[in-house]
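Wed. Picked up where I left off yesterday with ComF family protein. The coffee machine is broken again, so keeping this brief.
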Amino acid sequence: MNCLLCHQPMTVPWTPATLWRRDWVCPSCEDRLTPLHGGCPRCGQPNETGETCPDCIRWLALGLDLTVHCLYAYDEAGVEWLHRFKFSGDVAIAASVAPVLRKLREPGVTYVPVPLSDERLRLRRFNQAELLARKIGPTRQLIEKNEVSSQRELGKEERRHRTNPFTVPTSVKYGKIILVDDVYTTGTTLHQAAFSLRQAGATEVSAICLFRALNKSKTRPI
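Structure written out below (tokens, as returned):
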């Protein structure tokens, strides 16, 4: 058996339960991503005090209250993983984080992946947030996204003040909704998506994000 990420041979336990598994990751690759613990209780931004970070305080001042469970730091290893998954189209590596995502599944929750615009979806051919959300549980696409310029070309303040591209075509009558996305940078995408859901009638909205960009990181956000 070869590691899903580095493709090096590895020894795995052969049992009836593991016979058909193809998502094995070697210990070396498994340790590369940096799990987030503590930090800001609303977005996972690392800090030593465990207090709400300045970014989330600004969102709260705007009347936008959203708790986002971010799993890993968007450091050098995170950037490498996400580029391979998102831009190189190596969707198979999503299986390497599937066990962690499955542990987040809650009964009675509607998982809503953050959508791509139709044009972006045609270019990429898959929605990375939807693939991640399916690793957690059944999904529903309740949101539509209008085409806007890529956030990769925008600065932090430009991202925060962009026009909301999300619409919810019908009233939302579900209970707890959890949005799912790949990377949290300024929080604009998730806060705007959550705002649109609440405008359509959603009463309880939170989010799960695979990576959290680090304010002090020199890596380029996606």
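Quick read: The chain is about 30% helix and 15% strand.
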